[in-house]
Write a structure and sequence with these properties.
single chain, mainly alpha
Amino acid sequence: MGEVNSILGFKLRKLRVNSNYSQLFVANCLGISRNAYVGWENGTINFTLEQIQRVCEFYNIDIIEFLKEIPSNKNNIL
């Protein structure tokens, strides 16, 4: 899960920086603490599907597009 979190965190940071938003601004818009948001960007806190959906809605991007290039692990059973 660490590799997936790192990739998602990198994508999240890229979206934020390209939008010229602060971590605090995005965290407030998503209804989470700045510390939690920083954990997402750093890949140290797991994302839920609901959280990924909120991020995609916030940035007005398709969830499939956001999840592209995420490696799948056939051994993981949700």
